Amino acid sequence: MELKSGSVESPTAVGLNDSDLWRFIPLLYIMQAVPVTLVQEVSTIVYKDLGVKNTDITLWTSIISLPWAMQMLLGPFVDLNGTKRRWILGGQMFIAIALGLMVFLLQLPNAFAITLVNLGLCGFASALCNIASDGFYILASSKEQQAKFAGIQSTCYRLGRLFCTGILVALSGYFMKQQNMAPATAWGAVFAVAAGWYGVGWLVNGRVIPTPDTDRPAVEQKPGENIKNLARTGIVVWVGVCGYFLISAGGSLLGQIIWLAFDGAPDGPLKSIHLSGFQNLFGTDYYRADAQLFILLAAAGLAALGLVAAGRTLRNTPMGDAFSTFVRQPGIWAIFSFILFYRFSEAMVSKMSPLFLKDSLVNGGMAVDNATLGGIKGVAGVMGIILGGILGGLLLSRFGFKKAIWPLAFAMHLPNLLYWWASVAKPPIAVLYGVDFAENFGYGLGFAAYMVFLMRVASRGNYKTSHYAIGTGMGALCIAAAGIVSGIVQQNFGYTGFFAASMIFAIPGLLSLLFIPKEIQ
Fold first, then answer.
1. What is the rounded CA–CA span in Å between residue 154 and residue 216?
2. Is 408 helix (H, G, I), strand (E, B) or coil?
3. Of the residues 264, 294, 320, which one is the last residue of a structural domain?
4. Which CATH number characterizes residue 66's domain?
5. Are 58 and 45 in the same domain?
6. Do 230 and 274 have their domain in common?
7. What per-residue string of b and e applies to 385-413 under the rule 16 or more CB within 10 Å gives b?
């Protein structure tokens, strides 16, 4: 099938059989989970072991998670340039190298700052690879096969997460406890294992990922158009980065205003939003109000210039069409609200719960060692997500999205109360396995509905790969924002106050269900 200029991607594949899909889908989605989990979740444990403060951990690990939020900006570039297969293999090669570099970077004096940069670059490669993987999955399978393999896809992703949060975290505990390794050395050895395993997976994927006829750019490109698309993408990312700093600086100044109005004491209950209380990675106190005001004004000016440039370069182009058709669809504000708020509360708990489990009893935590944490988060938690995801899919299939969404949404948020109870009651360690299983089981139920929602939104447009990337990117932006908010709330109100506040943050997500467009239900 030949795509002509102005056409869009085919909604169905040329027809790989099920055995062909079995050859590449499991490993592809196991590997998709590895860099995401290492950067977004395991990195918090790494930096906790290195002695970094909770506020710095949650802030900076949330920032390096932004590449997945930028999937919504990068999706059309992947969709329009080259084959998805090449993007997958190129991205996986870069990720394997970045993970290998962690072995050496963790031993350097400024390991926190340097490894953050490396993990951030790994995140960009992973985001591009994820866009290509999801697009390839859509293009290489029929709608019937997509439904059949949805559970396999989700389960394999969770197994990849289990490898990171279970096996790798437990391995770090073994190295530190049994082999008496320093934290930096132990985690260096762990990243060596991760890089070696990932590199082998990349080699295998080079052999097993097929080359279907449908794996081609969404629109036939004119000579030299790829370079223009790269420039257009750079402008779009420029606007996105400026927008992030605009929101970040505005939020910091708002926090300073709230601190001045309701606290005013450097060591008061709202001390974590007092700007003078922050330092950057190199110890320079630049988060003062005057610096943030400068960042706010500079980001606003640069964003305005970027918007003008984006309007000129994207007008009457397929890339511009991919963006504009997403935002012009009916009920877009209800869709935005659902994507941004539905998972916000759960994302806060996911970011903070491993820190709560590891922190000392004096600080309100549970003093769990890494080996035990690997069992709690990596085994009990991941099994909860897998079982919840499978059951959530069955419920959606049996009762439909409209009837199932409310029970699934409540099932995702109510188990967070168990972590609040644990912060108050300080139960035995064995009970925490059940707490984390229940919390992640509820997340699995609710996440199944979330994924169905994104697929239905993407199916309304012609640029399905781009629209799916935009939706998942906005979801990642929610996770990054939730991580930053979680650090501020925990620093101000402790773990008990944080888990109570997470339930309040669930309310906007539940209210967004009232406005979902009927055709998506």
1. 25
2. helix
3. 320
4. 1.20.1250.20
5. yes
6. yes
7. bbbbbbbbbebbeeeebeebbeebbebbb
**d(C-alpha 451, C-alpha 471), whole Å:** 10
pTM of the model as a whole: 0.72
Question: What would the DSSP string read from start to end of 10-76?
Answer: -SS-S---HHHHHHHHHHHHHHHHHHHHIIIIIHHHHHHHTT--HHHHHHHHHHTTHHHHTHHHHHH
- The per-residue pLDDT for range 243-281, each reduced to its tens digit, is 878 877 787 787 778 777 777 777 776 666 666 544 444
Query: Is residue 228 located within the same domain as residue 362?
Result: no
Q: How many domains does the chain have?
A: 2
Q: Which residue range forms the structural domain that includes residue 23?
A: 18-220+329-515
Task: Assign residue 352 a region (left: φ > 0; alpha: ψ between -120 and 50; beta: otherwise).
Answer: alpha
Give the pLDDT confidence of 176-235 residue by residue, as tens digits: 888 888 899 999 999 999 999 999 999 999 998 888 777 776 666 666 666 777 788 888
In order along the chain (521 residues), what is the average pLDDT of each group of 10 residues?
A: 35 61 89 92 89 82 81 80 87 95 92 92 92 82 63 78 85 85 92 95 91 70 68 82 80 77 72 57 53 82 87 82 83 88 88 86 86 80 82 80 88 89 90 91 85 77 77 78 81 87 89 82 65
The structure tokens listed for 211 are: 């080359």
Out of 320, 347, 372, a domain closes at: 320
- The answer to whether 130 touches 31, Cβ cutoff 8 Å, is no
- Residue 212 DSSP label: -
Q: Are both 277 and 418 inside the same structural domain?
A: no
Give yes or no: residues 382 and 272 share one domain.
no
Angle at 427 between CA 173 and CA 272, to 5 degrees: 75
Residue 125 within a domain: yes
Question: From the CB of residue 504, how many other CB atoms can be counted at a distance below 10 Å?
Answer: 10
- Name, in order, each residue with C-beta under 8 angstroms of 490's C-beta and a sequence gap of 6 or more: 54, 58, 352, 355, 497, 498
